[in-house]
């Protein structure tokens, strides 16, 4: 059984409004002005060379209080604003009908993923989900991808794997794990590199990769 691994934010889920609202609310509470544009925020988040704290909160010393406040606001805004991109549920349904295993590797906190996916009504499609925690470093570290592949290989001796993401971090993680990468150009990574423009194009690319001789 072949395996597709998805990133979450910017690939399956449009969380740009939740992220933007959270950052600008915390900036306001820290007396930082003006509000930052969503495109700028997404660009910084997807750039592995950037330091988020310095970019979003210049002159502010990171603290546990700031991180805790950010997490509380982000959970609230995520539940309020996050939606799946158009065509995603159809893509997941088609993959299941093709008897393809589906996994999730996200830099979001591991403990939050099940609740998010259930709220968005796509949890049932996933065979394995894993997110950031003490044992699983954030991408571009390949640990999450490697763990998923190892888990899948317990019951599948021969299979192909492809990882679908939207950022330089995702591409680097895929390279580090030595698996095929497909770039989603419909989300946060639009125009960042060559890829597919719609979930339907992604489906065609996935099937071509799996079933080509």
Automatic annotation (TrEMBL):
Coiled coil: none annotated. InterPro entries: HAD-like_hydrolase_sf, HAD-like_sf, HAD-SF_hydro_IA, HAD_2, HAD_sf, PGP-like_dom2. It comes from the Bacteria. The keyword Hydrolase applies. The keyword Acetylation does not apply. This is phosphoglycolate phosphatase. Keywords: Hydrolase. Pathway: Organic acid metabolism; glycolate biosynthesis; glycolate from 2-phosphoglycolate: step 1/1. Belongs to the HAD-like hydrolase superfamily. CbbY/CbbZ/Gph/YieH family. Gene3D superfamilies: HAD superfamily/HAD-like (3.40.50.1000), Putative phosphatase, domain 2 (1.10.150.240). The lineage of its organism: Bacteria, Pseudomonadati, Campylobacterota, Epsilonproteobacteria, Campylobacterales. GO terms for cellular component: cytosol. It is an enzyme of class 3 (hydrolase). GO terms for molecular function: phosphoglycolate phosphatase activity. GO terms for biological process: DNA repair. It holds the Pfam family HAD_2. Its EC number is 3.1.3.18. It catalyses: 2-phosphoglycolate + H2O = glycolate + phosphate.
């Amino acid at each position: 059984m072949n395996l597709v691994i998805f990133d979450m934010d910017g690939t399956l889920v449009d969380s740009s409004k939740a992220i933007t609202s959270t950052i600008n609310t915390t900036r306001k509470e820290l007396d930082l002005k003006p509000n930052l544009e969503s495109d700028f925020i997404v660009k910084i988040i997807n750039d592995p060379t950037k330091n988020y704290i310095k970019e979003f909160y210049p002159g502010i010393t990171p603290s546990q209080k700031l991180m805790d406040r950010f997490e509380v606001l982000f959970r609230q805004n995520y539940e309020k604003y996050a939606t799946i991109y158009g065509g995603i549920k159809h893509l997941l349904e088609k993959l299941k009908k093709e008897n393809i295993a589906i996994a999730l590797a996200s830099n979001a906190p591991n403990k939050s993923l099940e609740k998010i996916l259930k709220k968005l009504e796509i949890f049932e499609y996933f065979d394995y989900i894993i997110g950031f925690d003490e044992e699983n470093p954030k991408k571009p570290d390949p640990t999450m991808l490697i763990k998923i592949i190892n888990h899948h290989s317990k019951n599948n001796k021969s299979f192909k794997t492809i990882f679908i993401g939207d950022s330089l971090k995702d591409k680097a993680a895929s390279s580090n794990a030595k698996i095929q990468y497909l770039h989603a150009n419909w989300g946060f990574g639009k125009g960042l590199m060559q890829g597919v423009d719609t979930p339907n194009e992604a489906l065609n690319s996935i099937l071509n990769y799996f079933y080509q001789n």
